[in-house]
Amino acid sequence: MLFGYIPERAAIDDLLRRTRSGSGGVVEFTGELGAGKSSLLDAAAEKAADLKVLRAEGCRPEVQYPYALLGLLLGPLAGQVAELPQEQAAQLHAVLWGGERDTADLLRVCDAVLALLRTAARKRPLVCVVDDLHWADRESVEVLSFVARRAGTEPIAWFLSEREDTCIDAVRTSPAGIRMPLRGLDEGAAIRMLKVRVPDLVPSVRQRVTEEARGNPAALRDISYALTPAQRAGRINPFTLYDGTPSSGTSAQAEFYERFGGLADRTLLLALTVAACDADDLRPVWAAAYDLGCRDEDLDQAERSGLLEVSASTARFVHPLWRLVMYCNATAIQRNAVHTALSRSDTPHAARIWHAAAASYESDEVTTGLAEVARHTPHEQAYAAYDRAAAHATGRGQRAQYYVAAADSAVEAGLFDEAARLADAAAAADLPAHRLRVAKVRAAIDGERGTTAMDPAPRTLTLLDEPPCRRNAEDHVTQCRDSGAGRRLPYALLALGNALLGEDEYARAREAFREGLELCEESGQSNCAALLKSHLAWCAAFEGDEARCSALAQECQAHSEQHQGPAAVSSVVLWAHARTGMGRARYRGALAQLTALWGCESTPRSARLAADLVESAVRSARSGLAERPFKWLIELNSGPSAQMAAPSSYDGLVARCHALLTEGEEARGWYEEAAALFEKHGNRVEWARCELLYGEWLRRSRRRREAREHLYAAEAVFTEYGARGWLWRVRSELAVCAAKRKAVPSRAGLTEQEANVVRLAARGRTNPQIAEELFVSPRTVANHLYRAFPKLGVTSRAQLSALRPDEIC
């Protein structure tokens, strides 16, 4: 599986397409160690499964043997050598599989190899894949360069890879080739790779590994595998990524020792000091290294060898894997000496404490220092600090106290597996003073995972509440990010999404909900995940995506059946279903759902919910059911809460509901007032809904020209916001208005409105259902059917289902 490299994948597809059509070419991938060249070659071979694939890989010990790589590549074609002229066949046998390599004529070998490849390509196009070309012998490289220059006229594709710092000039200058330097994965692709390859990394560690690897795929993999299970779960030293005893098996180990194994011991000790300190700041590193006996010439040698990049104030490894190899292959004595020196250098107090902890075991001084650091750091770092403090503590009571504090911080950071482990460790001490705190931690874990009826966030703001202030919601999200409060962050994102919905920022609201859902799924916060899914279902209803809305609703229902989670989940889902019905003019079903929601004692009542209930009741010809929510909305608008609400969230909704409940010309004034209020305060979606209702009222009042003006305005806004849930109603109304104006009959002589009625009747709709969807009276529906039956040659509704669509249109 490839992560990133989109231009390179396009080049692979293009070359394979040309090869299948009879012409070939060369694509050469270059990059640093572990840059992903092999993955691209594997992808090329996999995509060329229907072609003849030849593969070879350069090998460092075989660089001195002429034609070694070429023999590996052409081995599968040995049976076709007999089809060549006798002289060329003898040349290939002698050079590739005989013993006369040193005396062979290079030009004759090139001609023979080209003839062999042409013969094989006539039967089936060839794909030649050569990895690690920098470790190929010189003769093989020259032959491949000769053949590759002629690949454009033959159905032969060449995919080559070599290291950027050891490029082979002969192949690089091939006129038919495309040279593609690989610069590593971007952050998004790197995170996707880690999610698939190393799924047990918690988000904070995943981000840390991504920054350390600098986009190098091999570094992403090796650094992740080098971390201990506890480090993968989040117990990471914030100042030193490798501070334990991680495994030492990496893909770069042999390369490292070949290039840098000959450096002086003091130079390697200086490099180990850089590896033990994540900061690129040269000052504390140089102070610690100087205490260890290193001098200026050691830093100069490390820079000249290509191991370190050094500037006036920074020092870091040239390749991201060198730090891993350097630290993992040091002895425990060397690592402790380096950490001890760093703990005495001129670094921040917290960094010195962590380095002292990495260099020692049980120590009261380190324990006290870690606990002090934990009290002033974000929850993710505080959890790791308290956990390390417990490991260094000498007394049972003190150890249990730090385990409980670590468990609390782990819960706040959203690391529930670690919180459960730490709670168990604290409970093992069996001290009465900590039993209550352990019980609270376990209850919080169960509540977040949805294994109990506990609602972990009773003050969570949902769609059923009035939208919070956007600025306050954004500040809360920022505070949660800065403090490492992983448990609270999804709830903060939920509140931010609701604030954005209140300002018609639907796209950003969905992003906030999705980010929160991703965090919940990674940390196991199933209750909050269900809340976020219910809000995404509401957004899907706004978009008119009934399938996604239903799928998310089913997931929420399954969670509610398995766990007794927050009551708001079912309420928001029910509102989402009602909104879907309102967008399709299925008002009776929406009214039943909204009435049930309004009557639920555990459901908060919001102005938007009341307005939807009034609209559904009026459109269902049951205005009596609108009286109570309308009265409640008026009282809310005149109460103290109105001063705290977003502008127009109450007065515009009240005016629109007045218009729905008013008959005659008085309704016109209310519609215009509501539209003016929504437009004044920039609430465009609610303004468009008001224009839709106004257009429907005008059309029913036989003012179709005016109705079209308002309907077209509503259509433009709904299209801009992707509100397909409301576009259906707008366009249905426009179709009716256009039918009245143009009166263009169908093939069967039906008017547009008659055709609309017949289509719905053919689908099994009853007259009241058709009237509800087309916003006409049931009597009008009956009249349309009465006129349409003779034109279609049918005598009953049952015969309508047998008609073809073209017979109606």
What does this 3D model show about the protein?
The protein has 809 residues and is mainly alpha-helical. It is built from 42 helices and seven strands. The strands form two sheets. It has a five-stranded parallel sheet, sandwiched between helices. It has a two-stranded antiparallel sheet with strand order 6-7. Strand 3, helix 6 (138-148) and strand 4 form a beta-alpha-beta unit. Helix 10 (217-226) packs parallel to helix 16 (320-328), helix 25 packs antiparallel against helix 26 and helix 29 runs antiparallel to helix 30 (587-598). The protein is flat and about 100 Å long. Mean pLDDT is 84; it is low at 167-175, 453-458, 642-648 and 740-744.
Output the radius of gyration: 36 Å
Fraction of residues in helices?
55-70%
Number of helices: 42
Given helix and strand content, the structural type is mainly alpha
How many strands in all?
7
- Mean pLDDT rating: 84
Distance linking N and C termini: 49 Å
Strand content: under 5%
Shape: flat
Strand adjacency order, main sheet: 2-3-4-1-5
Model regions low in confidence, pLDDT < 50 over at least 5 residues: 167-175, 453-458, 642-648, 740-744
Specify the biggest β-sheet: 5 strands, parallel
Key descriptive features of the protein:
mainly alpha; 5-stranded parallel beta sheet; two-stranded antiparallel sheet; 63% helix
Short description:
The protein has 809 residues and is mostly helical. The longest helix is centred in the C-terminal third of the chain and has 19 residues, at 724-742.
